[in-house]
Amino acid sequence: MDIPFEERKQLSDAEREEIRNYYRKMQEHFHGLQAYHLLLDDLYHELLEYHYFVEDLYHTTMESL
Q1: Distance of alpha carbon 22 from alpha carbon 48, whole angstroms
Q2: What number of other Cβ atoms are within 10 A of residue 62's Cβ?
Q3: For residue 26, which of 56, 39, 64, 18 has the smallest C-alpha distance?
Q4: Domain ranges of the chain
Q5: What is the pLDDT along the chain (65 residues), one digit of tens a residue?
Q6: Tens-digit pLDDT profile for residues 29-46
Q7: pTM of this structure
Q8: CA pair distance 22, 57, nearest whole angstrom
Q9: Buried b / exposed e across 20-58, counting CB within 10 Å, b at 16+?
Q10: How far is CA 4 from CA 1, 7, 9, in A?
Q11: DSSP code of 36?
Q12: Is 55 helix (H, G, I), strand (E, B) or coil?
C-alpha cells in the first residue's frame, strides 16, 4: 500500500544513519563483486588464449604425424 509522499513519517537520525550504513555496505559489496567480475573476466581471456595455443599445438602435431 503506497503512502502519499506528504503523509510519510520523518525518519529519525538513528534510522537515517542505519540506512546510510546499509547503503554503504551494499556499495562495498557491489564494488567487491565488480572487482571479482573483472578478475574472472581476465582469467577467462587468459584461459581462452591458452586454449587457442593448445589447439594450434594439437593441429601442428597431428599434421606432422
Answers
A1: 39
A2: 8
A3: 18
A4: 12-64
A5: 566 666 667 888 999 999 999 999 999 999 999 999 999 999 999 999 999 999 999 999 999 99
A6: 999 999 999 999 999 999
A7: 0.61
A8: 52
A9: eeeeeeeeeeeeeeeeeeeeeeeeeeeeeeeeeeeeeee
A10: 10, 5, 10
A11: H
A12: helix
CA atoms in the 13 A half-sphere facing the CB of 41: 6
Q: Cα–Cα distance between 39 and 55 in angstroms, integer?
A: 24
Q: Which three cell numbers stand for residue 57?
A: 599445438
Contact (Cβ atoms closer than 8 angstroms) between residue 51 and residue 43: no
Extract the C-alpha cell encoding 54: 593448445
Instruction: Read off the amino acid at residue 26.
Output: M
